């Protein structure tokens, strides 16, 4: 082969610019990247069964805060922006750079709209705490979450009335209540009374929940069952045995209807300590939370400035497989949104050229167009998989 | 502008209209509440596939590209399908006894909970007896 005979028309490799080949290779890796997420989402979703063997994946919009109109609108926004990108590429080919810029500007604006709607959706998830690792999946988890959030609220409220050195000290809640009550530097004593009341009510609340005793039974009187040797059962509050008239020790059991039943200690076979007391239920915890909130609002009306602290406690709402749902949702839509942001940067680079845009940018516009269409493609599949299939 | 390029000119607006109609169809399928889930899945994924084909064929010009598109995209698509397929028997299908802890919740007795509380980390700064004060 002679250099003299080299013909410039013969070109090795593919009949496309190298940058376009590079873009397509990159998109090839992107296909695998997103199908890994989408594929695992489908597999996990298929694998998440409820106790009855039926699909257990959360699909109720009340649970998931998935809004079909938001997803549909975003689909429309993306296909319109894809259309604008392709028109921008056409305009670049026709050397109409001003028109190309206009289309790219419209695409950029639509990308912002997409992210705006996405942000609205994310806000709904954050405000309802539909976040990976935050979601209670059973009643017990939901009850404990209420307790944990209330604990933070009560401590925050109480800290305002604690001496500075006691705020970060590792003290128990009753100790802190005590210290706050005695603190002479507090100017608003009425507000402190409110905070201490809230804290005491919370301690009572927590006592019930941790003992898993229904709120219907007063905490200091957990119901017990005394089983006698002849097989009888006596239900009621059982104080410590006391010496009876004849010197033998006696349990004076106070039954729920106010009677006192004496049982000789020597006749007792077994003492079930509250084991038969009805356990606290999620509905009870919800009612109690509502009651405490209402009380707080009433106090706030009477004495402005207390603030509605308990409004930051989320309503207990267990969602089976909610954490898996939230993880996959945020992983897929989050990476998609990141791709949208990268696309905006790529569009921004062209738009920054302003009137200097020239034919040399044609391949660049084609390549970012390909990328943008791919971002659109991903959303085309995310939309039915996340928003529609229930 | 070359002649070969001119042949790429599809009517992009028509493609956009087709995509728009497909999106509306997806939403209609959701709104009319198709009770048979399998039918719904086939319909919406069918529509999504149609949309994807429109975008790839016309917006991404794949319809007009040379055969290199097959060489370049086939391996990635095989690998992309391979991953879910490999995971499916393990997690997505239950040929073994299924036991997710969330679904196995039994009503607990009082004693069980007491025991659980004593060992639980909540609350970290407080012994369970504190509530009695």
List keywords for this structure.
heterodimer; A: 390 residues; mainly alpha; 3-stranded antiparallel beta sheet; 11 helices; 6 strands; 7% strand; elongated; B: 133 residues; flat; disordered C terminus
Summarize the structure.
The complex is a heterodimer of chains A (390) and B (133). Chain A is mainly alpha-helical and 390 residues long. Helix content of chain A is 58%, strand content 7%.
Order of helices and strands of chain A: HHHHHHHHEEEEEEHHH
The low-confidence parts of chain B are 1-7, 107-133
Order of strands in the sheet with the most strands of chain A?
2-1-6
Approximately how much beta-strand content do the residues of chain B carry? Answer: under 5%
What's the total helix number of chain A?
A: 11
Distance between the termini of chain A: 66 Å
Give unreliable regions of chain A as ranges: none
Strand content of chain A: 5-15%
Cα-atom radius of gyration of chain B = 28 Å
Termini separation of chain B comes to 86 Å
Largest sheet geometry of chain A: 3 strands, antiparallel
Largest two-chain interface: A-B, 85 and 73 residues
The number of distinct β-strands of chain B equals: 0
Instruction: Give a short account of the largest sheet of chain B.
Output: none
What is the average of the pLDDT values of chain A? 87
Shape verdict of chain A:
elongated
Structural class of chain A: mainly alpha
How many H/I helical runs of chain B? 5
């Amino acid at each position: 082969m002679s250099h003299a005979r080299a013909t410039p028309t013969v070109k090795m490799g593919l009949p496309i610019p190298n940058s376009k080949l590079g873009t397509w290779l990159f998109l090839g890796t992107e296909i695998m990247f997103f199908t890994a997420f989408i594929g695992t989402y489908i597999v996990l979703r298929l694998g998440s069964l409820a106790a009855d063997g039926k699909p257990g994946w959360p699909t109720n919009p009340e649970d998931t805060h998935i809004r079909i109109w938001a997803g549909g609108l975003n689909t429309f926004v993306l296909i319109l922006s894809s259309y604008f990108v392709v028109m921008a590429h056409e305009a670049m080919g026709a050397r109409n750079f001003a028109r190309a810029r206009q289309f790219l500007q419209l695409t950029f604006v639509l990308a912002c709209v997409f992210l705006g709607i996405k942000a609205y959706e994310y806000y709904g998830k954050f405000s309802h705490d539909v976040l990976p690792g935050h979601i209670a999946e059973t009643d017990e988890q939901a009850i404990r979450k209420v307790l944990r959030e209330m604990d933070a609220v009560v401590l925050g409220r109480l800290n305002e009335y604690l001496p500075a050195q006691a705020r970060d000290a590792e003290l128990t809640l009753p100790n802190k209540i005590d210290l706050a009550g005695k603190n002479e530097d507090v100017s608003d004593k009425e507000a402190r009374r409110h905070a201490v009341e809230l804290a005491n009510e919370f301690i009572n609340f927590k006592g019930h929940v941790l003992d898993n005793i229904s709120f219907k039974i007063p905490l200091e009187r957990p119901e017990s069952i005394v089983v006698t040797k002849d097989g009888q059962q006596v239900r009621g509050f059982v104080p410590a045995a006391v010496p009876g008239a004849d010197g033998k020790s006696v349990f004076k059991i106070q039954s729920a209807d106010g009677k006192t039943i004496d049982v000789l200690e020597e006749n007792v076979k077994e003492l079930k300590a509250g084991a038969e007391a009805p356990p606290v239920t999620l509905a009870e915890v919800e009612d109690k939370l509502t009651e405490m909130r209402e009380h707080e609002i009433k106090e706030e009306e009477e004495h402005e400035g207390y603030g509605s602290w308990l409004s930051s406690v989320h309503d207990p709402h267990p969602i089976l497989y909610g954490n898996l749902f939230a993880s996959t949702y945020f992983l897929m839509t989050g990476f998609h949104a990141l791709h949208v942001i990268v696309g905006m940067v790529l569009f921004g680079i062209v738009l920054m050229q302003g009137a200097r845009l020239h034919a040399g940018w044609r391949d660049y516009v084609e390549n970012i167009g390909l990328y943008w269409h791919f971002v659109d493609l991903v959303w085309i599949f995310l939309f039915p998989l996340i928003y529609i299939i229930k | 502008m070359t002649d070969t390029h001119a042949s790429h000119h599809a009517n992009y607006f028509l493609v956009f209209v087709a995509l728009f109609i497909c999106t509306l169809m997806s939403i209609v399928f959701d709104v009319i509440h198709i009770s048979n889930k399998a039918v719904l899945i086939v319909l919406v994924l069918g529509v999504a596939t149609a949309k994807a084909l429109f975008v790839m064929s016309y917006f991404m010009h794949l319809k007009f590209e040379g055969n290199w598109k097959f060489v370049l995209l086939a391996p990635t698509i095989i690998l992309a399908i391979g991953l879910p397929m490999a995971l499916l028997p393990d997690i997505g299908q239950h040929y073994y006894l299924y036991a997710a802890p969330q679904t196995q919740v039994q009503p607990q007795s009082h004693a069980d909970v007491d025991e659980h509380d004593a060992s639980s980390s909540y609350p970290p700064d407080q012994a369970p007896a504190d509530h009695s004060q």
